[in-house]
Every structure is written in C-alpha cells, then in structure tokens.
Amino acid sequence: MYKSIITITVLMLISASSSFSQIESVPEKKPGVIRIGIVSPMADMGKDFSFADTPMAVRNTLQVALADENVETVFIESALPEKEAKLKKCDYVFYSRVLRKKGGGGMFGAMAPMLAGAAGMIPGVGIAGAVAGAAASTVITATTVSGGFKSKDEVTYEYRLMSTDGSAIIPVTSTKQKAKKSGEDVLSPQIAAAANAVLEKIKKT
After folding, report:
1. CB of 53 within 8 A of CB of 64?
2. Among candidates 200, 199, 197, 176, which has minimal Cα distance to 187?
3. In degrees, to the nearest 5, what angle opens at C-alpha 44 toward C-alphas 159 and 64?
4. Would the pLDDT of 191 be above 70?
C-alpha cells in the first residue's frame, strides 16, 4: 500500500516537473499591473450534459470578465498552480468550480465539494451581457455551454481568490441560479458577479 502511494506521488511530481518545462511563456509584467492567474476550472455537470468543454468555456469567460484597467490574466495549467503562478509573476490566483443539479433530479457531484461555501442567489449582473458578447463567436464560452441547460436545472458557481503566498483574499464563495427555460444562460451572470467581486477587492487591497 505504502509503495503504491509513493509510486503515485513520484509520478505526480514527474508529471508536474514535465508540465513546468512546457509552461507557456507570458509577456513581461509591466509596472503597476496586477496579474491574476486563472486555474483551469473544475466542472461537475453530469453524464447527461452534452457539452464536454465546460472548464475551457468558464476559463475563456473569466479571461474576458476579469479584464480591466491595469489588470491582466494568465492561464495556470500545471499540477502545481501556486508554483506556476509565482513563476508567471501573478499577484493572485483564482480558483473556481461549476456544478449542475439536474432539474427534478439529484445533485451531480453531491460528494463534498472541493470548494464548500454558503450558497446564495445573486441578482442579474450588468456586465453579464458584455461577458457573453465580448468573446469571439469562434471561442467557446459560458454562453455556448448554456445551450445544454434544461428547464429547472440548477447551476452553482464556486470560487475563491488567493494570494501567491497562500492567503485567502476572497474566501470560498458560492452562488446559484436555476434555469427557467431550456438554453437559458444562468452561468455567465454568476461568473460576471464573481469577476466584479474580485476586481473590487483587489482595488481595495
């Protein structure tokens, strides 16, 4: 048993080392610019969900939503996000997860979520439309995958913002919205709200 654990650990470290050697170079960080590293989002949408690229869709949407004056984003893709974030000179690291509860059915990913938090309903967010429209139509976004939502599906979005030294800037926060009709985009507004919260917080820090 212990040998198996050691073997798995070694393989993970080898994989992480390999991924660091292939890290995409990023532009030199300019003075006064805040850089946010976006860790590839987790997604638990259920086996019946027809869109497999939800993590990429959320990540692309976040790239647009977090864009602001003197704020830039980079993608974090290795198995050791905190270390990669430091290598890419990030000031903050953003983690998130999407869960879908099938309308009238059980919760996909009912096991203890990686990011447990108090859930709450959020109002419509003004920049949600901009988030949906800013990304090019050829790029998959949260609006794209919303085509797979069915009436009464409940979508939860969990997120947290950390500094590269491990301090929690925004603790785990969870929001949720229920689709009133099939194809309704109930994810983009939540991502937009999360982005607003992040931008407001880092400007005060």
Report:
1. no
2. 176
3. 45
4. yes
Q: What is the pLDDT of residues 27-60, one digit of tens each?
A: 888 899 999 999 999 999 998 898 778 999 999 9
Residues above pLDDT 70, as percent of the chain: 71
- Higher pLDDT: 127 or 74? It is 74
Q: Is 29 exposed, middle or buried (0-12, 13-18, 19+ CB in 10 A)?
A: middle
Three-state DSSP string of the chain: CHHHHHHHHHHHHHHHHHHHHCCCCCCCCCCCCEEEEEECCEEECCCCCCCCCHHHHHHHHHHHHCCECCEEEEEECCCCHHHHHHHCCCCEEEEEEEEEECCCCCECCCCCCCCCCCEECCCCCCCHHHHHHHCCCCCCCHHHHHHHCCCCCEEEEEEEEEECCCCEEEEEEEEEEECCCCCCCCCHHHHHHHHHHHHHHHHHC
- Whole-angstrom distance, CA of residue 90 vs CA of residue 26: 11
pLDDT tens track for 153-164? 999 999 999 999
pLDDT score of 205: 79
Q: How far is the C-alpha of 138 from the C-alpha of 136, rounded, in Å?
A: 5
- Tokens at residue 119, please? 């859930």
Question: Global pTM?
Answer: 0.75
